């Protein structure tokens, strides 16, 4: 596996020419880098006007590796080739280096760039990228990779310190200014105007607003952020939000990218970004929900005090109000009567939602006055809680929370809630028992899912291996426009559009119309009769479109003939897919569904009559992107990828 590194932008508040003078002092050796033993100039070229200089060096490194490994490898030093291109006119230095030793077994490639700060010409920026690919190394591939990454991380951390050291050395010598390059016989500008660069994360910003990160952690954040900018068509999550997903997976890029993709899809499907404006808690929750926000703990975290599919949303809204929080759960009075299956199921669902979509927001969770029945509840829920999150749980039985190691270690004494023996009057709602008159009937519970789905404009369908889902749209007038918008919620599918002069036989179980939606649990209808022959009884009018989990697809088809148009979502056999290097969101999610034989889509279709349509044809071209918003107000960034031309 190729290991990659991308540095943040490091800023030196010194002019480019002075930084270059400091940089040159690193050669031929540098006492600040003990492993940098020597360097020899093997080639040097300078342009006629002196504006450009190219230097090629052969550098020897004494890698800190076990002696046994060095003996097996048969080398004392590792040699690298470094090529520097200094452009004094443009005020840039480009550095490219690669390993010469063991180049057939290990490939190390690094590029660096010093340039003028885009907003201050008297400052200098530094960026660095690198990759490590260990093909084979005498059976010690894993060991060599760890050694290489450790050494590289150490040298990265020292990089800025070294330049700062030599800048100070120059200052001590009285050298505080180096004139810019200028042509000797032409009146040309001293430097070309600097183009404004896209926003990049710089090291000072990361340290000030995101905390202390190791060089490799910084690299993961920058690479994941860049990947989102290149592939995500919607709003880019904030840096601290991306960082939480990385921390939740111990900065494993692939795993963090996977859960972040799933979370962005979830946010879109459930319109989470609009909950605060569009959804209000039912009166029963407003009156009887026990819990709320109280104060800030010693770590500056907001904390909530609490004593016990609307309840979940209510919890989501509470979670959206704080970046990181401490939760106090008072279990006084808990008994077996409370371990009601629907209640436990709702609790597990809340844990699942928070774990998957709000990772690393829980600072700590203090469970107080845990009764003897608590181990039963803990046995039920703990397997569903991430290991890193479980470490944040502190459980106190009886009055143990009142002594040393209890609440006073995490919360200032003056703000401990009064009902827990503190001095602070707590205004968190106490809630209460819900009156039996407000209980839902068994019939209401049974029909809840049906009601939820029928109230939505989007329909839900399941697709199985060998059992596609199909809907039929009858077109009376030619030149009508069929439009669609669907999300692939689970698995990978192939989307097809067919035309037939014959009306397909709608199954009797279809009780909700031609779209074939029968129930939330099993929306799957096949309309194309097995006796029909493609090319005779029906024909394909659009090329098949492969869609991956997490994608939204919006498109249209301009009909040329009256008749019956069949929209089909078919299971996509992953075994037929070629492997990729995860360049897009769809590829990240693809690997999750290899063993599944069920897919799920949410879709909406509409037919625009030719007399009603007044838009431009380009506005109806198909768009196909990861996480594009369902709302028209948030889909204007979708890129057109396939036209609506008809093929027959």
Automatic annotation (TrEMBL):
Residues 305-428 form the CRAL-TRIO domain. GO terms for molecular function: RIG-I binding. This is SEC14 like lipid binding 1. It comes from Astatotilapia calliptera (Eastern happy). The gene is SEC14L1. GO terms for cellular component: cytosol. One of its GO terms (biological process) is negative regulation of RIG-I signaling pathway. Pfam families: CRAL_TRIO, CRAL_TRIO_N, PRELI. Residues 3-175 form the PRELI/MSF1 domain. Gene3D superfamilies: CRAL-TRIO lipid binding domain (3.40.525.10), GOLD domain (2.60.120.680). Residues 454-607 form the GOLD domain.
């Amino acid at each position: 596996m190729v290991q990659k590194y991308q540095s943040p932008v490091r800023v030196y508040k010194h002019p480019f020419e002075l930084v270059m003078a400091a940089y040159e002092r690193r050669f031929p050796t540098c006492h600040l880098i003990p492993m940098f033993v020597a360097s020899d100039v093997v080639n040097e070229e300078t342009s006629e006007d002196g504006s450009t200089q190219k230097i090629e060096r052969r550098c020897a490194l004494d890698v800190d590796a076990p002696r046994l490994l060095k003996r097996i490898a048969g080398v004392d030093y590792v040699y690298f080739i470094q090529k520097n291109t200094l452009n004094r006119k443009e005020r840039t230095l480009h550095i490219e280096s690669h390993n010469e030793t063991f180049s057939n077994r290990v490939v190390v490639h690094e590029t660096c760039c010093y340039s003028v700060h885009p907003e201050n010409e008297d400052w200098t920026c530094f960026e660095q990228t690198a990759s490590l690919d260990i093909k084979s190394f005498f059976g010690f591939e894993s060991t060599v990779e760890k050694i290489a990454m450790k050494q590289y991380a150490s040298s990265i951390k020292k990089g800025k310190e070294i330049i700062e050291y030599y800048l100070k050395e120059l200052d001590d010598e009285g050298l505080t200014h180096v004139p810019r390059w200028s042509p000797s016989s032409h009146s040309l500008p001293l430097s070309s105007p600097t183009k404004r660069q896209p926003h990049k994360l710089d090291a000072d910003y990361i340290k000030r607003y995101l905390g202390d990160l190791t060089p490799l952690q910084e690299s993961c954040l920058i690479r994941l952020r860049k990947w989102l900018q290149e592939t995500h068509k919607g709003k880019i999550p904030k840096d601290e939000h991306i960082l939480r997903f990385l921390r939740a997976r111990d900065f494993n890029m692939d795993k963090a990218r996977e859960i972040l993709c799933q979370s962005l899809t979830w946010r879109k499907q459930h319109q989470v970004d609009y909950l605060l404006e569009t959804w209000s808690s039912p009166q029963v929750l407003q009156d009887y929900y026990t819990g709320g926000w109280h104060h800030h703990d010693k770590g500056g975290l907001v904390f909530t005090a609490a004593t016990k599919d609307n309840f979940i949303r209510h919890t989501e809204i509470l979670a959206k109000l704080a970046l990181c929080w401490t939760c106090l759960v008072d279990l006084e009075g808990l008994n077996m009567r409370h371990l009601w299956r629907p209640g436990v199921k709702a609790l597990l669902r809340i844990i699942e939602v928070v774990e998957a979509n709000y990772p690393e927001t829980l600072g700590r969770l203090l469970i107080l006055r845990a009764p003897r029945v608590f181990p039963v509840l803990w046995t039920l829920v703990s397997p569903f809680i991430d290991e890193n999150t479980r470490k944040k749980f502190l459980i106190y039985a009886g009055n143990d929370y009142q002594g040393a190691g209890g609440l006073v270690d995490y919360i200032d004494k003056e703000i401990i809630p009064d009902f827990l023996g503190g001095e602070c009057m707590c205004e968190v709602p106490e809630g209460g028992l819900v009156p039996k008159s407000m209980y839902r009937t068994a019939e209401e519970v049974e029909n809840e899912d049906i009601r939820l789905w029928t109230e939505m404009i989007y329909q839900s369908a399941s697709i199985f291996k060998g059992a596609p889902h199909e809907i039929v749209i009858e077109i009376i007038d030619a030149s009508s426009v069929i439009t669609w918008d669907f999300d692939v919620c689970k698995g990978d599918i192939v989307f097809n559009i067919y035309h037939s002069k014959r009306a397909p036989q709608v199954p009797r179980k279809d009780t909700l119309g031609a779209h074939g939606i029968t129930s939330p649990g099993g929306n799957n209808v096949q309309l194309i009769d097995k006796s029909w022959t493609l090319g005779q009884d029906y024909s394909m009018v659009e090329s098949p479109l492969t869609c991956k989990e997490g994608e939204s697809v919006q498109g249209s088809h301009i009909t040329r003939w009256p008749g019956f148009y069949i929209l089909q979502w078919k299971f996509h056999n992953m075994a037929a897919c070629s492997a990729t290097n995860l360049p897009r969101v769809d590829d990240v999610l693809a690997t999750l569904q290899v063993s599944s034989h069920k897919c799920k889509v949410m879709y909406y279709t509409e037919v625009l009559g030719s007399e009603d349509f007044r838009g431009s044809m380009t506005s109806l071209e198909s768009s196909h992107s990861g996480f594009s918003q369902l709302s028209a107000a948030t889909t204007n960034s979708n890129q057109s990828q396939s036209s609506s031309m008809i093929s027959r």
